[in-house]
Structure formats: structure tokens, C-alpha cells
Amino acid sequence: MVSSTILGFPRIGPNRQLKKYVESYWKGSTTLEEMVNNTDELRLQNLRVMKENGLDILPVGDFSLYDHVVDTALMFNIIPKRFREHFESELSSVYSSNANGEYEKKSLYDVYFALARGIGDNSSKDITGGGLPSLEMKKWFNTNYHYLVPEISEETEFKLIHHDLIKQFVEAKQLGYVTRPVVLGPVTLLYLSKIEKAALHEHNRVEKYSLVSSLVPVYSELLAGLEAVGCKWVQIDEPILSTDIDEEISKCFFSFYNSFKSSLESRRKANSLGNSPEKISVILTNYFGSYSQNFKLVSTLPVEGYHFDLFYGKADLNEDVISGIEKDKVVSLGLVDGRNIWKNDISGSASILKYFISKFSPENIWISSSCSLMFVPYGLGSEQGKLEKRVLDKLAFATEKINEIKQIKDSIKNFDASAEGIALESISNSVDSDLLQSVLFNDESPELNRSLDVVERKKIQDSLYNLPLLPTTTIGSFPQTTEVRKYRQKFKKGEISKEEYDGFIREKTSKCVKWQLDLRLDVLVHGEYERNDMVEFFGENLSGFTTTSNGWVQSYGTRCVKPPIIYDDVTRLNQMTVDLTVFAQNCANKITKTEKNKVKGMLTGPVTIIQWSFVRNDIHTSKVAEQIAYAIRDEVLDLESNGICMIQVDEPAIREGLPLRPKDQELYKKWAVNSFKLSTSAVKNGTVIHTHMCYSDFNEIFDLIKKMDADVLTIENSKSDLKLISKDNNFGEKYSGGIGPGVYDVHSPIIPSKTEIRSRVNKLLEVFDKELLWVNPDCGNKTRTEEQVDLALKNMVSVAEELRGKI
Length: 807
Known about the structure:
Blueprint: E1 3-4, H1 17-26, H2 32-52, E2 58-60, H3 68-75, H4 81-86, H5 88-95, H6 105-117, E3 137-139, E4 146-148, E5 151-152, H7 164-174, E6 179-184, H8 186-192, E7 194-195, H9 206-210, H10 212-228, E8 233-237, H11 247-269, E9 281-285, H12 295-298, E10 305-309, H13 319-322, E11 330-336, H14 346-359, E12 365-369, H15 389-392, H16 398-410, H17 454-465, H18 482-492, H19 498-519, E13 523-524, H20 536-539, E14 545-546, E15 553-556, E16 559-561, E17 565-566, H21 578-592, E18 598-599, E19 601-604, H22 606-611, E20 614-615, H23 621-641, E21 646-650, H24 665-680, E22 688-693, H25 702-708, E23 712-715, H26 731-734, E24 738-741, H27 754-767, H28 786-806
Parallel strand pairs: 1-12, 2-6, 5-7, 6-8, 8-9, 9-10, 10-11, 11-12, 13-18, 17-20, 19-21, 21-22, 22-23, 23-24
Antiparallel strand pairs: 3-4, 14-17, 15-16
Helix pairs in contact: 1-2, 10-11, 14-16, 18-19, 19-21, 23-24, 24-25, 27-28
Pathway: Amino-acid biosynthesis; L-methionine biosynthesis via de novo pathway; L-methionine from L-homocysteine (MetE route): step 1/1
Cofactor: Zn(2+)
Protein name: 5-methyltetrahydropteroyltriglutamate--homocysteine S-methyltransferase
């Protein structure tokens, strides 16, 4: 009998309850006990929904209060020194607890949220700043989910410090559910972690992976504990296998999984948690792409099963891979797309399933999602009657995808593998025949290039605008306060008129402009109060898009986004940002009685709109990018013709979209870069084009960034402590445009001190030409309070003015 399962389920709940429960605890509105009870019920509700929709095997351990990577780090005691010292007494009680984890639970929750959010030592009236910075945040492979980067040092002592995963398994078992615990794999954990330089010898990266031997005891202890309570299968996620791994990482895989099996066997002989009636089995899970050449390694590892992402890893549908699978192994087939929202081709999926049934025993086949369903919304229930029927009929969210898995399983009930010959059809990954005819693949097109290079353009721009050294600005958004959200909801519900809503937005914009002038910022923004989200806003103003009522997905922690859906050809319906941007410019001129003020137009670039939307899959993505680029181009030109001389076209997701394997990257780089250039290159040489990027390894895409030909690049930098553009990387020597590396982290409630900002700017001045350097935060201010933004920007501007005077 074929089994049905998924790799994970959305954590946030059908109505973003996770956000409400956790944030109310942070605010002190609810107690820890209330938060734990509420989130536990949400976790159990997920199990009920999965079972009711027809799954045979349910995942446990996929639920998280913030991030599954920091969950794993904390479980194995990967706690940076600054937090260990701060929580010394609390952690001592954890370390001395017994195997059942009998300790004061609050202590670990405090550590957990400190790792995620940092700890501020500033009061509301104190602008000296300081505190303990949170863990760095980066994109989870090529998705828009952000994970927290574990920090490992010489002092890190790997050990299992809590047994919550075991408790969750037991709880689910007692409720009658057949479950499979989910654990982030050791090699991927190391791959995602950063190692303090002191822990390395001459920066030798091999040292990082040599630490895997220290992880063997903690993983074997965890699995021995699960085995002792009757767990039959555990899912170990190793999505690093969807990348091209090198020899050192291959050795790391081989070393860990062989040593781990030996360690687990030793524990069985003297298992203090009891005698297991059945040995636990491991299914190794890869997703976001194919195993490709890595499967030769994987097939030698002592695991009992493999998961295949057959939606984004169709390259594994070949005889070389399939013939390498031993017949007694379990194969998990990721036939349902875990990353997009279009309905499954049930008959096509059934054909693939039938092929595997002809090769393997049905008892050893699982039908699954390609990856966790955390990347799609919870369910379509709240969209009934709200989305256009022709769109709604094509969609499947998480709960519907579970039902699709059941449909695939049911479709082969009467299939007789012995009676029917099944041939594996080749999967074509060829580029559309007409694809290269697009303007995005013609580098010489005049539509893609400005008449002067960035150095010559800067001379013209300097003469026009006379900005000071170290000009200060922000990335765009200002706080989306409760008042702003309430007005937006009232307008959507029809409780206030469009005139009332527009009047409120103009009032907020005017106050924001005055606020920035009082702060003495050099280049202003309009605050983006009219935008619910930097992508959804444009989706509401372009044809070919639709937006959902409740289609939320997790971006990081409790931050959720509601991606629009691109279902048809895209065009601009009308001007989208011109009116408010010009209004803000006029407000600034009126307040100062001068026309020297500069307000940036704020737009989102085509690649980011694509990456942060659910995109149609019936044409190549580059064609969608070209359509969006022409729409943004029209808006850019309208801004310019209305007197806006600085225009920011954000592309924070351009690194995120980069395919995981180098052989697939060149095509993407070409259309991604050229879609940005198509959006921006029609302006005059005196118009300053800004762009913004965040949470990426920027040195990996330096050539891509340079080819974008922006006049000013603002870039996340402080949360990663300047490492991405340090002096060692020669970024400053190679980049000729204006550059604004962020000088403080906006995703933490900590107010940055002047000392901290000054230190960062001084380090940046060692790397970048003072004539090119801008001073700005890491990212937009949308998620912070007005008070936090005010204090942080006061410190930032003060430091810039101080250093400007010294220079």
C-alpha cells in the first residue's frame, strides 16, 4: 500500500495566529504559559488538519515559534558566547536538568527569543543604544524565507539540551497519529552556520566541516531517544544536496552518516531511555532541486530511504539515478509543488507514481510534497467568493495540496504493475524556442543601456544636486503603525470613503516628510503608508495580477507576507506612485521654502516582484519579467517627467532567485540583470537610479550587481557585521557606483548607539571612496515603532554629520 505524507505544514495558522500569540508575549500582554498553551494548540490543530485531509504519515518537529534553524541550534546548544554569558544562571539549570528536560522552561524561551531578536539595554528615552545583537539573518536557499544563522566558536559544546521533539512525538502518538519527526541534517546545519575566525586555522573552510564528528553523539542521542518511545522513522533534511557539493562536504556526509549509525547502535546496547521494539529508520530528504551527481554519494550512505523533489528536481527522473536505488529502500516522491499555488496535474503525477510502482514495492513508496508546504498559504477557504472563479479554480494552497496527494494515491488503486508496462518519459528542460528573441537577451539593445557610464553620470549628478559627503537616507518605508493598518482595513471594508482614506495617507506622508527634515536627512522618502507590502501594492495596480484575502506565508519569525498571484499578461493600468511622491516633494519644498529637497521615488523591481509572488507557470519566467519591466519603466519615466530626480528600484530578491547550481545560473543572470536595466535605462543621465538588496552573499553576485548599472546601491550589511563587503573582499576597489552599506539592523528592537554606527562607518571608509559612500540603515523601517526609528535615525545622522565635519 502506497503511503501519503508531506515534509512540513504552514506554521502560522489559518489566520496568522502564531503572529498574534508570540507578539503578544513579547509585548507582555500574555504570559509565557498562555503563549505556550496557544501555540501548542495551533501545532496540534495542524496535525488534525493533516489527518482529516487524508495523510497517512504526519510530520512533527516542523512547527516553530520563530525559525527551524535556530530551533536546531538551540536544541544542540549552539549558543554564542554573548548569550551564554548573559543567560549563565538560566542555562546552568538547563544543563543540570534530567533526561526528561525538567527545568524552568522560561529560561530556554528567553534564550531562544534573544537569539532571534537580540537584547536591548536602552530604555525608551535613552539614545545611547547598545545591547546584544541577534543572530544574522539570511535567505533559506532560493526562497523568500529568512533563517537565522547559527554561530559556532571554539567554545561551542554540542549537546542535546532539551527533548521537546521527543515529547511532541509522544504527544502525537498518544492522540493516535502516525508521525515522523523532522530534523535539520548535520551537514546542512554546518553549511548554514558561520564559524568565528578564532575557531578556524588560517581561514581554512575544511575546519568547519570537521566539526561534524562532534555532532554525531547529539544526533544519535536524539534518535535513540525517539527510538525508545516507539518512533519508526525520522526525516533528516539535507537540502544542501540540491547544490554542487565539493569533496570536503562529500567526505563530511560519508563520515557523519557512517559514524552516526555506529554511535546509534552503541546506544541501543545500553539505552537508558528503555528498550525499543523496532530500530528507527532514516529517510534522507533533499528538496529545491535534484540530487543530480550527488546521488552517487547518497546511495552509499546507511539510510533507509530517500526523498526526491520531482517538481524542481525533475533531472532525477532518469534511469541512472533510479537504478541506483536499492529495492529495499523507501522512496518518497515529491510530486506536489510545495512552493507554488497551482493545481497539480494529477494524471501526470499518477504516471510517475505508476512507473515507481513498476520498479519498487508499493509498501516502500511514499507520495509527498516536493518540500515543506510552509511556502504556500494555509488554505483556500477564506478565498471562496472573493477571488475570481477562473483563478480560484486553478489554485491549491496547503490543505488542498494534501488532498491532491490523496487524489494521486487514489488514482492508482486498480493499477496492476505486473500487467502494465510503464516507460519513463524524458523530462525536457530546454529553453522555449522563442525565448532568446526577448529584448532581455539582447545586451546591445538601446532599451537596456544608458548613454553614459556610472562614473560620467556621477559628474553630472554631483553638479546638479550638490549633496554633502556621506549623504544620509533611508531605504524607503516608515513604520506601519496600528493607526495606519486600522485605516487600511476600514477602507477595505467600506467603512470610510476613498477620499477619507486618501486624506489620511496624505496627512501621514506630510508628517513623515517633516519628520525627516527635522532629522536632517539629506535624501527623503514619502514613507510608503499607502502600501501594505512592497510587492502586493504593485500587484494591486498591474493587470495580470490578483491578490488574496488571507494568503499569508511566513517570511521570517512572526513576519508574514501575502504574495500576489500572477496569472496573466502584465501591463500597467495607471500611474501607481507618482501622485504621492510628487505630493511629498511639494511638502518638503513648502516646509523649507526651497526646491533643493530630494524625495526618492520608490518602486519594486521586476525580479523581486516575481520572486515574492506566485508566478504563472505556463510561460518562461523571463517573459513575465519583461512584461513587468516595461510596466515599471513607464512608472519611472512618469516620475522623472514630474520632477522626481532620484528613483529607487528595489531588487532585494535578485540573489534569492539565483539557481542553486552554477550550470543553471547564466540564463537567469542575463534576464534578471536586463529586466532591471529595461526598467531603469530610459531616464536622463542626471536622474539618479538607486537600488536596494538585502540578506544575501553579495560577493557571489558581484558581477551581476555591477552589470545592473545603478547609480547608488544600498545594501544590508550591519546584521552580518560588515563581513560581506569587508576590506578582504575588495568590493570597494571593484565597485564604481555610489554605495550605501547599512550601518544598523532594522529587524532588531535594539537602538544602535552612536559608537556602534561610528565604528561601522569608519570601517566602511577604509574600504570605499568617501565620495561614493552613503549612510543608511540595513533595510526599510516598516516593522519598527516610530520611537525606535526616531532614536536610531537621530544617532545615524549625528554620526554622519560628525564624520563629515572631520573629513
